[in-house]
Every structure is written in C-alpha cells, then in structure tokens.
Write a structure and sequence with these properties.
mainly beta; Methylamine Dehydrogenase, Chain H; four-stranded antiparallel β-sheet
Length: 370
C-alpha cells in the first residue's frame, strides 16, 4: 500500500504541465514522426532523502525549473525543493525563508526568468509562489487559506498571463492571473464537483483542465465539457489536445481489488471530442506519467514507469502511426519519471524529472534525464 500511495502522489502532482503546447481547433496536417534519441542522465543536486521532483518546465536551452519535495519519510511530510537550470548545471534555489512544508507539484515559467509554482502540505493548504528571476516569494490569490480552495497545476502564456487549475468554494476550477490581478473564471456549466489534477494551454490559446472525472476546454469566453475518462481507481497524469477531435490522455489505474502493493496498469486514451477509446501501449504494467507535443502540437513523446523493468525510464515515441518504446539510460536504482517537457529553441530537446524510488523512503534522490 505504501508503494501505491507514493506513486499516486508523484504522478498526480505534476504531469507534464509547465510549457506544454499543442494546436487546437482544426485537425493537424499529416502525421509527424518523432526522431529516436539517446537519453542521458544529468547530474542533479542532492536533496535530503527521500527526495523527488514532481514537475519541470523550460523556457529555452539555458533556462528551466524543476520542483518537488525532499526529506519526506513515509507519512511524514518533508519540505519543498526547487531547482533551476542555467544552461550548464542544475542548482538549488532557496526556499527556507518561506517556512513551507510539503511539496511543490507544478511549475511554469517565461523567457524573462519569471516563474510560478503551486504546492503545499495538503490541497486545502495551497500556496502560490512567484519567482522574479532571483528569489521565490509567496503570492496572494483569491481564496488563499479558505476551506475548499486548492491549486493543482500552473501554466503560462504570452504577455505575463498565468493560469492555475484547482477549485474554490464556488466550484470554479480555473484561476487566471495577469499583472498581479487574479480572477477565478466561471464554474463549469454542468456543476461538476471534481477538482482537476492539472491543466495545459494549447498553441491557439485554449486552456484545458483535466482529471479522472472531468476534461474541459476554456476558449477565453466559454467552457466546453467533454465526457470524463473515468476508470476504476484511476489517475490522469497528462493531456495533449492536438485538435478538438484529436485528444490524447495518459495515466494509470489499479482496477478492481488486488493484494497490497499491486502495481497499476497503464492507461492511454484517444478522444474524438465525444468519446474515449483505449490505445494499447508498448507495456501494460506500470504508469504513463506525462505527454508532450512537438513544436506544431502533434503527438511526440510520453514518459512512463515500467513495473517489470524499473531501472530504466520507459518513454514512448510517436512514429507517425503508433506509440513505440524508447528507453532511458540504465541506472543502479529504480527510475520513476514523473514529468516531461519539450525545450523551446533546442531543436528537439527534452527534460524529464522524477526520483530513484517508488516509495517515499530514504535513500531516494531526484532523477533528471534529457
């Protein structure tokens, strides 16, 4: 049961949010082929065991951020962990002055060095952090500290726009910020009570919120709700809206019953806007934890954790017609990737982050690949 709880916490915390991009509105023109790549492990600063990274975001080859938690030991919460990439190395960024406990589970940023992160010790103790290029600081938002307010994911857009998924006491699921002003957008028309696990912004500017019990698109004026993917003890970790009728969804579920420690089964769904169908992945026992599109928003790569081969990350690459396996470098420890992001301006680069254990105990450390 400990394994299941930790995996659920990691995958639900951050699932390829950051600067994920896709095109929307019309179907993409022709199939794309993601070229094979050789993944490499990248040195990362040591954290207080057990440490993990939940999410990663990139503004370019010389600027990226990663967030998570360190010092967690089973049911005892640790303290947030935040790293920054300067083009040469990953380094820690100080958070001690904020006095936080728990985790940061989503991060997003911009080319000017500004960044945003959400987290907390529990969903109803949500915190929003802002980085000015040098320092992280607490940021206020409507409903902060109020019962029923949670923040689950963050993404950015042009001209300083920021969107955050979550929920407030009025049932709103999307918070919009611009130049210091924050506004909860109208609730979903259906009155759905589920809290989204994350969000993504498409290249055309639509913002999607997603979770096991909801998938919805905000076009700047109105909501469009799609059928919920559902599932038995399921978690949704990522969404790639290529077009309104071409939507990919990643995650995992535990199915019915099973003994303590039972591993999850991967979930890969393809939607046409009115229904979802299951797509067979190259491996079946484990998790799919994030999905990203290419520069034009077409299917590109998925990150995963293969229960039967835990010492290598199991990525999926779109070959123009299907998802095929692509393996990360072999390690001496388990490798659990929790977030994946494309790097703008890199000609096809990626960052993938996670941890070296599937349970929240020492000596787990952060894992970074590219």
């Amino acid at each position: 049961m400990r394994r299941r709880r930790f995996i659920s916490g990691l995958a639900g915390a951050g699932a390829g949010l950051g600067l994920a991009s896709a095109s929307g509105g019309t179907a993409w023109a022709g199939p794309a082929v993601a070229e094979p790549r050789d993944w490499q492990a990248v040195p990362a600063p040591e954290g207080t065991p057990a440490a993990y990274l939940a999410d990663v975001a990139a503004a370019g080859p010389d600027l990226a951020w990663a967030v998570g938690e360190e010092g967690r030991d089973g049911g005892t919460r640790g303290t947030p962990l935040a790293l920054v990439w300067d083009g040469t190395a990953w380094t820690r960024t100080g958070l001690g002055h904020l006095g936080l406990t728990g985790s940061l589970w989503s991060v997003a940023g911009a080319f000017d060095g500004s960044a945003w992160a959400v987290g907390g010790a529990a969903p109803n103790a949500a915190r929003l952090l802002a980085r000015d290029g040098q320092t992280w600081q607490d940021a206020d938002f409507p409903g902060r500290g109020a019962a029923g307010t949670s923040l689950t994911g963050v993404t950015t857009g042009p001209e300083g726009h920021v969107w955050i998924s979550g929920r407030n006491s009025d049932g709103c699921v999307l918070l919009h910020g611009h130049r210091g002003r924050w506004t909860w957008l109208p609730p979903l028309p259906s009155g759905a009570t589920a809290t989204p696990s994350g969000l993504c912004r498409t290249r055309c500017g639509d913002v999607w919120v997603y979770g096991t019990e909801l998938v919805a698109r905000w076009d700047g004026d109105t909501w469009t709700e799609l059928p919920a993917p559902g599932g038995i003890r399921a978690t949704v970790t990522g969404l790639l809206p290529v077009a309104d009728d071409d939507i990919w969804l990643t995650g995992y579920d535990y199915g019915v019953g099973g003994p303590p420690g039972k591993p999850p089964g991967v979930r890969l769904l393809h939607g046409d806007g009115s229904s979802w169908r299951s797509v067979t992945a190259p491996f079946g026992v484990g998790m799919l934890t994030a999905i990203v599109g290419d520069a034009r928003g077409r299917p590109d790569r998925i990150a995963g954790w293969d229960f039967w081969d835990q010492k290598r990350a199991h990525y999926l690459r779109w070959d123009g017609a299907a998802w095929v396996s692509e393996r990360g470098p072999a390690a001496d420890t388990p490798v659990l990737i929790s977030s994946l992001v494309s790097v703008p301006g890199s000609g096809g680069g990626y960052w993938a982050v996670g941890t070296t254990s599937s349970s929240p105990y020492p000596p787990a450390q952060v894992r970074i690949e590219r």
